[in-house]
Amino acid sequence: MQYLTLNNGIKMPILGFGVYQIPPEDTEQAVLDAISAGYRLIDTAQSYFNEKEVGEAIGKCGVPREELFITTKVWIENYGYDKCKSSVLESLEKLGLDYIDLVLLHQPFADYYGAYKALEELYEDGIIKAIGVSNFYPDRLTDICLFGRKIIPAINQVEINPFNAQYPAQANMEKNGVQISAWAPFGEGKDNIFTNDTLVGIGEKHNKTVAQVILRWLLQRSIVVLSKSTHKERMEENIDVFDFVLDEEDMLEIMNLDKSESLFFNHQDPEVVELFNDLVGAIKKQMHNEK
Ligand SMILES: NC(=O)c1ccc[n+]([C@@H]2O[C@H](COP(=O)([O-])OP(=O)(O)OC[C@H]3O[C@@H](n4cnc5c(N)ncnc54)[C@H](OP(=O)(O)O)[C@@H]3O)[C@@H](O)[C@H]2O)c1
Q: What is Dmax (Cα atoms) for the chain?
């Protein structure tokens, strides 16, 4: 595994395993499989409803805590100073940990200023080792870096895949001293990504799969990347990316696939903001039922 050093000196694995859309009943086994395949970075979120099961796997995996890097994210419903603080303490309890390596604000909506202040205090108390944001595109990221608070986010986790390559966002993060991280590197399989001719061709050249080519392309851009699979053989395939190098021509060919459009939703579209507002209501109900 390779590591990157974040802007506060903390080391983070460059490749990780995400548990979005893994049902709670399958999460413990998936995380145990991922850790046994060699993953040390596990990415969950309050809104994935599987923090407890991630914690159970951490407790059983046999790998020392300090070798693992655990990320969770605060959902919009828990934004604002007080709610954010108590929700992170709740996440800590669900995960069965006495510290969390990285906590992100999941979305750039609602009272993210108050929530970020709470993260800063938890960071100063040593309960969180690094703090950051997710889905903060250049306008919002610059806002939080300039006007936000005392601490520059260590990470900004955004959608990145060959069809939405995020070169301008990466340049903006570099300018602000924020490490870029990729979610949905395979675009969750959308737009026939796994059979794309260019990616298949590059894979054949290196005797690697499309998934491995995509992950390698991200690693060579110094991006912390998270992928998800519930199949152990795919987890192993997706971590077997440190023994080959894409050349300049490969990198350029992949660059040409970029359409600079999200495969999911554009966070800067007002209708998407409305959608998130509706989601808050739905997730609030689910969180209430969980208690
Ligand atoms: N911050 C955010 O807003 C945000 C949003 C989305 C995701 N994330 C994080 O990023 C992680 C990864 O993103 P994602 O889960 O949305 O999507 P992804 O990793 O791009 O795609 C996952 C899909 O690809 C399939 N897959 C995985 N490896 C494969 C392989 N080698 N060959 C063929 N198919 C393969 C999986 O199927 P199987 O499971 O059936 O193998 C699954 O359907 C998430 O789990 C989460 O931790 C964050």
A: 53
